[in-house]
Amino acid sequence: MYNRIYNFSAGPSMLPLPVLEQARDDMMNYQGSGMSVMEMSHRSKVYDAIIKQAEADLREVMNIPDNYKVMFLQGGASMQFANVAMNIMKTGKADYIVTGQFSGKAYKEAQKFGDAHLAATTKEENFTRIPRQEELDLRPDADYVHICFNNTIFGTKWDYIPDTGDVPLVADMSSCILSEPVDVTKFGLIYAGAQKNVAPAGLTIVIAREDLLREDLDKAVPTMCNYATMAENESMYNTPPCYPIYICGLVLNWIKNLGGLEAMKKINEDKAAMLYDCLENSKLFSNPNDKASRSMMNVTFRAEDDEINAKFVKEATAAGFANIKGHRSVGGMRASIYNAMPTEGVAALCEFIKKFEAENL
Ligand SMILES: *Cc1c(COP(=O)(O)O)cnc(C)c1O
User: Fold this and answer.
1) Beta-strand (E) ranges in 85-201?
2) For the stretch 233-263, what's the b/e string if a residue is b when 16 or more beta carbons lie within 10 angstroms of its beta carbon?
3) Which of 23, 55, 95, 110 can bridge 142 by disulfide, Cβ–Cβ 3.0-4.6 Å?
């Protein structure tokens, strides 16, 4: 009806069609307010209801306990690389597990603020797997352990939650938040840029255990980077990213209507299984990662011959499969199949892979 194509972009990425339609219907006059959500004061009563409902729905959908604060911030996940260090590095020691590019960036940023220790990495294996518990060199006196739960570029995901003892676990969930249930109580802090699975770019969600937040940070820490201040002001210390928060609310409503995160997980598992099965049966393409560490959201694949990879990207793009080229650091292809990618999109891609293979093998 709209001539939409299947967009496999790693982010910003597809949004659910019913969400876009609702946003369209609300665009000119939101619920009789006479204006668009984009145009209203963030201090207005009508907007207050939007942000409060979005937080309530996030708490309900993710089953977030009351002793956790929810913050709607800006700056992206990349800003949190610094914010986490500035806020949670109380004694100046933190452990980092590097499983890809973003966790590497977080580790590097933390070194500006204190003693960031590399507790494990799979860099030597080109990040094709998640390290096992016994490989983690964790320090019992660290202020936190940082991981990236789903590695967007390399297409791997933690298949277990590492045991960090009494040390709080901090996780970047930018590319897997809301894709399946997670036990929030296992984490001290979770953060996620919204543009992959939650909303348009501009919103960053931070979920933090109350006892980890403190006002008495180093004097040089900007007020805008102080989680305690942001939480105390209910994300309204300054103007929040109003429109992405509103879309986040619509997305949460869409997930609730599907049956919540258990139902979402089932759909995502089925989509990922379909694509991984297709790759396992392929004589041309393969996925380089350990089976246990496979991402449900970002599926990488490639042929041995780079000319074939380039040909595939060109023909797939022409056939309406957008943004299928792999990240420059990995090569080959990557299909990001977030919540909003319909099952038909994955099925169509599998058909295309088979057709391409028949023509090129
Ligand atoms: C996309 C992504 C980031 C970067 O997010 P920005 O919002 O652009 O800063 C960080 N971590 C992960 C896991 C990502 O997927």
Assistant:
1) 93-98, 115-121, 144-148, 150-151, 156-157, 169-172, 189-193
2) ebbebeebbbbbbbbbbbbbbbbeeeebbee
3) 95
Q: Do the Cβ atoms of 229 and 223 come closer than 8 Å? A: yes
Task: Write down all domains in the chain, each with its CATH number in brackets.
Answer: 6-17+260-360 (3.90.1150.10), 29-256 (3.40.640.10)
103/131 Cα distance (integer angstroms):
13
Angle between helices 343-360 and 260-280 in degrees, nearest 10: 0
Going by alpha carbons, the residue nearest to atom 12 of ligand 1 is 174
Report the chain (361 residues): mean pLDDT per 10 consecutive residues: 95 98 98 98 98 98 98 98 98 98 98 98 98 98 98 98 98 98 98 98 98 94 97 97 98 98 98 98 97 98 97 97 95 98 98 97 88
Residue identifier of the C-alpha nearest atom 10 of ligand 1: 77
Residue 244 pairs in a beta bridge with none
Which residues line ligand 1 at a C-beta cut-off of 6 Å? 11, 76-78, 102, 148, 152, 172, 174-175, 193, 196
Cis ω before 12 (30° cut-off from 0) = yes
How many angstroms separate the Cα of 35 from the Cα of each of 26, 199, 218, 236?
Answer: 9, 21, 42, 21
Task: From 284, 261, 263, 291, select the one nearest 333 (Cα to Cα).
Answer: 284
> Please, where are the H alpha helices in the chain?
17-26, 45-62, 76-88, 101-110, 227-232, 242-258, 260-280, 306-318, 343-360
The residue count of the chain comes to 361
Place of tokens 């089953």: 63
Ligand 1 mean position, distance from CA 104 (Å):
12
The answer for residues whose C-beta is within 8 angstroms of residue 91's C-beta and 6 or more apart is 141, 143
The residue to mutate among 105, 152, 153, 338, having the most atoms of ligand 1 within 8 angstroms of its beta carbon, is: 152
Q: Classify residue 271 as left (phi > 0), alpha (psi -120 to 50) or beta.
A: alpha
123 CA from centroid of ligand 1 (Å): 19
Angle at 274 between CA 302 and CA 194, to 5 degrees: 80
What the block records as the tokens of 271 is 């989509």
